[in-house]
Amino acid sequence: MQVFKKVLKWVLYILLIPVTYIVGSLILSAITINRSSESQVFDKSIFLSSNGVHLDIVLPINDVDAPLLAGINHGSSDRYLSFGWGDENFYLNTRTWADLTFGNAFQAVFLKSTTLMHVTRHRSRRAHWVEIKVSESELKKLNAYISETFVTDENGRKQLLKNQGYSYIDDFYKAQGSYSCFKTCNTWVNAGFKESGLKSCLWTPFDFGLLHQYE
After folding, report:
1. pTM for the predicted model, two decimal places
2. C-alpha distances in angstroms, 82 versus 8, 39, 72, 85, 191?
3. Alpha helix locations (H) across the chain?
4. Residues 6 or more apart from 202 whose CB is under 8 A from it?
5. How far apart are CA 115 and CA 108, in angstroms?
6. How many CB atoms lie within 10 A of CB 139?
7. How confident is the model over 171-204, as pLDDT tens digits?
8. What is the pLDDT of residues 115-131, one digit of tens each?
């Protein structure tokens, strides 16, 4: 009986960790960091894209500034670029949800890992994208935030992983930072919005936290 009580206690402790994480995430996701109250003209558009789990920031290619665009594969018919950040192993070895394994998920969430920027080229706007009107100043700050996430070589060039994209319209590049359950693909997007002065969550590891701010 004594052994059973100890085992039960440890099981409850283990279960308490994800429950605390989820409850804390929901509370912090619901706390809004409001947009700057400064007078601005919101005449530019950016977009949020989600696959149901992972958020990307989408910019019209004409509004991607020169430092960010430099070294990114694109063509004359491309109209939008979407930017996502995430765990390198997870990106490259979990191309579909059918490829998800416990090992890949565990490594991404709990172990220190290298990260990648995922850049996808689009020739037209997608129906599921959420449009957000921004000012010139906010757009400039968001460009800088995304640009600074790329790892560059000694000559300032972005480091492309050749032939690693999912299809002919996307590429992966080396990125700054390490992925964890406290710094996810969605916290990266949320932090970019926060640094750019856009409405954001206090902190959110889930896609719906930020999407809810713009419903």
Report:
1. 0.89
2. 47, 28, 11, 10, 16
3. 2-30, 66-69, 88-93, 102-110, 136-149, 185-195, 207-213
4. 28, 29, 31, 32, 33
5. 10
6. 22
7. 999 999 999 889 999 999 999 999 999 999 999 9
8. 999 999 999 999 999 99
